[in-house]
Amino acid sequence: MKKITIAIDGFSSTGKSTVAKQLAKHLGYVYVDTGAMYRAVTYYAMQKGLINKEIFNTEALISDLPKITISFKFNEDKGFAEVYLNNENIEKQIRTLEVSSFVSQVAAVSQVRKKLVEQQQNMGKDKGVVMDGRDIGTVVFPDAELKLFMTASAETRAQRRYDELIERGDKIEYEAVLKNVQERDYIDSNRKDSPLVKADEAIKFDNSNMTLKEQFEEILKLVNQTISN
User: Fold this and answer.
1) Which residue positions form the known binding site for ATP?
2) Per-residue pLDDT tens for 13-30?
């Protein structure tokens, strides 16, 4: 069976990572969570005091990029690859709402995108990869055999994210999560470098009213059709 590249783009909290992990596991493909890579750089910037509600020292972050190494290591107990920043496991630290509130600003920095896009292209050069993010089908792998664009209402996505955070034990208000989702949508769609747009040939997939099982089954059909063509 031939291997393909599957590019899944879309807005935040549309379930891209969840279905991408399922697909990769089912197909025996490599899964790359590009959003986690941008979160890792954001976490680095936060730890170094380069970004907060008052300032964003982009020059210092750009200068520090050579010091930043992002890698993935498979956790057999959890069944997925966790994110490491300079050999430190930061999988839990990067999933907070605080990181979410700054990640779109960091991802808008051209030098950051250039560094991470090159790494992403290298990780998927042999095909057999499922990659999700904001610009996979338009910039990272414009020749991907299957491109999906995930969408859902802001309210639906905020509720999903809120439920995740509450399950983790975070204390947060739904309104704060909704505001974060809306702000990220605006920044992601309006940045100068690689804004979030649907690739011309991407299949739009609205999962507002779908269960995870329904979503996986529908997308798997598209994958099998693409592989058999």
Assistant:
1) 10-18
2) 899 999 999 999 999 998
